[in-house]
Sequence to fold (177 residues):
Amino acid sequence: MISYKLRCELSHTFEGWFRNSGDFERQCEMKLVSCPVCGSEDIQKTLMAPAVATSRSKEGRAANIAEEQSETSVPSPTPAAPAGAPVQGQSKGPQSALMSLNDEQRQILDDLKTLREKMTSGSDYVGKEFASEARKIHYGETTERNIYGETTKEDAEALLEEGIAILPLPQLPEEKN
Fold:
């Protein structure tokens, strides 16, 4: 796996892990890589120093990771992807994504988690039937209620064109891994 330091068009920086450079390019072309802060899909790699491991640096890094994991409590990822985004695999280790964040970035991530919780509390999770359920509610075919779930970018655009008000949920880094 290769770790890239990435930047969106609004200069938000974040880290991404890819099998190789070709995977990064393919995922960007398919719009699967987006900024965890603003959702932009215009992503570029930034300059990075290579990580050269020595036995001494491995020991220090292991100690830092153990300390960081004992101090950081990360909730499990929520089951829904944001409206307008394809479903992606879950993270194998959510803590690993947080270890490279600074205090400001951690606060932003905490705020996004809080916002997402507020948006989904009191709402029904409808899974991949989001577009269908949103249409039924909009056209009065079922009881009006707040829902969230998964849909493709194309279906989300179609809903908006039909005048159906939808809002993408903030996507958390652990959902993209």
Residues 19 and 52 are 18 Å apart (CA to CA). The beta strands are 2-8, 13-18, 43-45, 124-127, 147-149. The longest helix spans residues 103-120. The longest strand covers residues 2-8.
